[in-house]
Amino acid sequence: MVLPLVKLGSLAFRTLSKPIAARLKHNAGIHPKFRGFIIGLAQANHRFTTNMQRRLYGRATDIHIRPLNEEKAIQAAADLLGELFVFSVAGAAIIYEVQRSARAEARKEEIRRQEIEARKKRIEELANEVQMMKQRINEIERRQYERRGLSSLRGFTTAAQPQAAASAAAAAQPTAAAA
Questions:
Q1: What is the domain partition of the chain in residue ranges?
Q2: What InterPro entries is this protein classified in (predicted)?
């Protein structure tokens, strides 16, 4: 939901920047100091683009390039400034989008890292709990073994008593039979 709104906002911002660029172009031709600056900028841009075109077509670049007249220079510079402004706004919007995406990805990565840490901690807790249970089982088995050992000793004495009583009863019977 947020991503389409951000993209729509950046598109609207770029669209709104075009009239600002047009206003900038208009004002560029009016102010004398700015006018002198942009004429020089336009002439430098004209020389650069002409040399690039000549190189592209394989022609000589060491020739004199005729400068633009003042009106064409102002118009070319104003167009260049307008395009630079629109490009700057679009570039800023792209940089903002990239940074926003990077922050979102960093948040996701942090959440993943925290989940992994929580899982590791839980595994460690479970391993400790298993170890404690093993110790308790061993203790219970040891106690059970000890009880069995003691009860067998008790059973031995208890078992000997009925045998002794049976022997005594058997010994008493022949006396009763003899009598």
A1: 2-152
A2: OPA3-like
